[in-house]
Structures are given as C-alpha cells and as structure tokens.
C-alpha cells in the first residue's frame, strides 16, 4: 500500500534502488519457494513494465518500477507462506503489478486510476467480471483511507509496506522525501522528517499472519533504530541552532556592552560637535566685532561711510560679504551648540500611555511631562519586563541620534557659509583692487 499519509505521512517505504530482483534483506536464510507466476501474470508483467518504463515521470524517485517489482516479489513470497491457491496467487500478483500504474495519470488518488487501468487490461484479456472486481478490490485496499478486510487484501497491503522491515528502509525513505519535494513541493528538516517517519512506523501494523511472521523482527528493530536516530538528529539540530545564535560573549553581557558603546559614542560625538561649534562662534564673533568696531570708529569721525572707502567705494562689497557670511556662520553655529530637547507635549494630554513604545522614560525631556504617579507607574511596568527596558534604551539612543543629526547638519552649514564667505570676500576684494588700479 503506497500510504500517502495526508501526503505527508507515507514514510519509510521507498523504491528499491537495487536491481529488479530486489528481495528484502531480512528474508530468512533459507528462502522459501516463491509462488509460480501464471501466463496471464507474465503477460501483465511485460505490459506494465513497458508502461512504467516509458511513462513514469523521473520525479517519482520512490514510486518507480523497482518499487512495483519489489512488491510483486514480496507477494510471491507471502503467497507461498500463506499457502494460497493458484487462482488467489494469480489475483494477488496481478493486483501487485497494477497497483501503482495510476501514477502514469495522477499522483493523489492514483489507486483509482490503477483500478481502471487494471480493469481495462483484464477485460481485454477475457477475464470474467467478478474476478476483475476482486482484483480491483485488492488495489483499492492500498489506498490510505481504505481498510484491508480479506486475506488477499491484507497480503497485498503488507507487501506494499514491506520496505519498513528492510535494512535499507532509511535510504528508501529519502527517495520518498525527494519525491515529495519534487512533486508536492513539500520540504522537511532532518528532525521533522525523522519524526514523521517514526510516527508513521509507530502507527503501522502488518495485517496478515504471513506478513507478521515475515516482518515482525526487522520492523521492530527499525522502529528502535529510528527512535534513536530521531533523538540524535534533534540533539544535533539543537547544537547547530545554539552555535548559530550564540556570540563570542555572553548574550546579556554582549547587549550591555553594545548599549554602553553606543551611549559612549553619542556623548563623544555630541562633545565634538559642541567643540567645533564653539570654535566657529569665537572666530566669527571676533571677526564681526573687529568689523563693527572699525566701522563704528570711522563712522564716528566721518559721520557717514563714504570716507571709509576712499576713492574706491567698491571696497564696501567685500566688507559687506564678510560681515554677512560671518553673521550667518555664527548664527548656525549657535543653533548647533544650543541645548536641544525633543519635545513631547502630547504626553501632557495623555499621561496614561507612559508605557507606550514611543515614550522614553529614561530621558528627562519626556518623563518631566508626566506626573510623579504616572512616571513611577511607567517605571515599575518597565522594570517588570526585560523587553520594555531594552525598548526604552533603544528609543533613547534613537532620539539622541536625532539630536546629533540636527547638530551636525547645522554645524556643516556654519562651516560651509564661513568657507564660501571667505572665498567670495577674497574674490571681491581682488576685483576691487583691480578696479582701483
């Protein structure tokens, strides 16, 4: 029976990758005589072999011709052990040859197409209707939702699942795993596949007395080995996942180090920005003071700006450019250096959401918007949850970054204005000298 367990639970049955004369390795030392094949069975063998060889998809790595041949050979061995009559043996072998022929047409529910193909072939060869129905009933018993009731049905189902009692059942199961991936698009991890096989094997029972006698010992051995294999696979998988998730440092210590480093970097960057802004403020303040003092002194004596320029009034242009750009540069530098606190006025209106992910209870600019009761409540809630603590720390780093981004944007503008102002002043002063000459 090709148990397509919800298309997900047919297991350790897989086509024999060995030669067509593949016989279970667990067979007794003294092989019992196999039931002879009638002329009709031999003719069915020739026709089905040709059909499966030419028509089966290469994606059917498990339900191949070799699997069918292995099932037929098991049926012959079981027929001898059960002492079947020639007629019953013939019916069993015919059903075995046709039981997977439906795979030529469809995957799920192939048993019903197998029944139709068998009926058509048998009718062409003059087999009576009652006997055709008997063979169809045998094939139908291999369906996952059917129950083997007659002795012949039990023998065919046991032969179909005999791979579970073979030494190489794991390699055969891998063929089935490959087939499901190719045909059904289903993939399993090693632990999942091992567990799937074990569950199927634990729920499986051989039905016929001949099957129980023939497969009991090896089947039990394979179940025990599969249980051990599952434990080893799970252990190996856990170890692999642990290696992927672990870091060189202890996880908790690594997280704390990361936050400590981030906070340290933000403080250093903020100090650097303030230092650079202070330099620009001092430089431009001195420059503006000198220009204004000079102009003020001259204006006090002359009463107007005309005498300041002498015979070349164009000199007023570079002085004006320098004064304007110095003023712009010092203004942006002051804006960069001034204290900046992210505003959250909406907290005053909704203080009850102190545990909101957007609220950072570690930053004074936010928690001072709350009442003491709401702040204490939010802190207690945060300390009860490890994730909330990290969330607040991450939020704090984010807003620190926003402040730094604004600082450096203004600082860059200050330096750019100052640089452009110096260049324009120098150019305009040169033009003024050329104009005077």
Describe this structure in words.
The chain is mainly alpha-helical and 437 residues long. It has 2 domains: 5-245, Catalytic domain of cyclic nucleotide phosphodiesterase 4b2b (Orthogonal Bundle), CATH 1.10.1300; 251-436. The protein contains 15 helices and no strands. The chain has helices at 39-55, 65-81, 86-98, 110-124, 129-140, 151-160, 169-184, 190-203, 209-245, 251-302, 316-337, 346-349, 364-367, 372-384, 386-436. Helix 10 runs antiparallel to helix 11 (316-337) and helix 14 packs across helix 15 (386-436). The longest helix is centred in the middle third of the chain and has 52 residues, at 251-302.
Average pLDDT taken over every residue? 79
SSE string, helices as H and strands as E = HHHHHHHHHHHHHHH
Number of helices: 15
Tell me the fraction of residues in β-strands, as a range. under 5%
Tell me the number of strands.
Answer: 0
Query: What is the first-to-last residue Cα distance?
Result: 110 Å
Major sheet summary line: none
* Count of domain modules: 2
The poorly predicted ranges are: 1-30
Determine the CATH topology of the largest domain.
Answer: Catalytic domain of cyclic nucleotide phosphodiesterase 4b2b
- In the CATH classification, which architecture of the largest domain applies? Orthogonal Bundle
Radius of gyration: 44 Å
| Top CATH class of the largest domain | Mainly Alpha
| Percent of residues in helices | 55-70%
Give the overall shape.
elongated
Structural class comes to: mainly alpha
Per CATH, the superfamily of the largest domain is 3'5'-cyclic nucleotide phosphodiesterase, catalytic domain
């Amino acid at each position: 029976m090709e148990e397509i367990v919800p298309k997900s639970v047919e297991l350790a049955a897989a086509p024999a990758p060995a030669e067509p004369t593949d016989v279970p390795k667990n067979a007794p030392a003294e092989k019992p005589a196999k039931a002879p094949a009638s002329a009709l069975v031999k003719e069915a063998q020739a026709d089905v072999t040709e059909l499966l060889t030419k028509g089966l998809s290469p994606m059917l790595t498990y339900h191949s011709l070799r699997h069918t041949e292995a099932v037929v050979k098991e049926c012959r061995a079981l027929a001898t052990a059960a002492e079947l009559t020639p007629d019953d043996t013939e019916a069993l072998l015919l059903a075995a040859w046709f039981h997977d022929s439906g795979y030529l047409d469809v995957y799920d529910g192939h048993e019903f197409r197998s029944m139709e193909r068998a009926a058509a072939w048998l009718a062409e060869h003059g087999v009576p209707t009652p006997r055709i129905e008997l063979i169809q009933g045998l094939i139908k018993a291999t369906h996952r939702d059917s129950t083997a009731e007659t002795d012949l049905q039990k023998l065919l189902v046991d032969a179909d699942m005999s791979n579970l009692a073979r030494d190489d059942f794991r390699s055969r199961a891998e063929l089935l795993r490959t087939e499901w991936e190719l045909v059904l698009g289903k993939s399993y991890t090693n632990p999942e596949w091992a567990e799937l096989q074990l569950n199927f094997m634990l729920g499986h029972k051989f039905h016929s007395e001949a099957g129980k006698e023939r497969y009991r010992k090896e089947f039990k051995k394979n179940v025990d080995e599969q249980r051990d294999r599952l434990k080893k696979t799970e252990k190996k998988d856990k170890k692999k996942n642990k290696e992927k998730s672990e870091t060189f440092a202890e996880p908790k210590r690594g997280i704390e180090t990361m936050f400590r480093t981030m906070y340290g970097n933000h403080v250093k960057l903020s100090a650097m920005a303030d230092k650079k802004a202070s330099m620009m403020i001092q430089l431009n303040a001195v420059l503006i003071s000198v220009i204004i003092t000079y102009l003020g002194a001259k204006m006090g004596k002359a009463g107007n700006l005309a005498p300041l320029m002498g015979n070349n009034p164009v000199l007023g242009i570079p002085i004006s450019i320098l004064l304007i750009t110095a003023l712009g540069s010092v203004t942006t530098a002051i804006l960069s250096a001034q204290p900046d606190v992210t505003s959250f006025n909406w907290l005053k209106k909704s203080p009850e959401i102190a545990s909101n992910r957007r609220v950072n209870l570690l930053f004074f600019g936010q928690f001072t918007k709350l009442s003491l009761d709401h702040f204490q409540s939010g802190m207690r809630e945060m300390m009860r949850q490890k994730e909330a603590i990290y969330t607040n720390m991450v939020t704090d780093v984010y807003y620190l970054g926003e402040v730094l981004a604004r600082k450096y944007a203004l600082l860059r503008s200050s330096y750019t204005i100052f640089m452009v102002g110096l260049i324009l002043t120098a150019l305009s002063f040169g033009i003024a000298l050329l104009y005077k000459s």
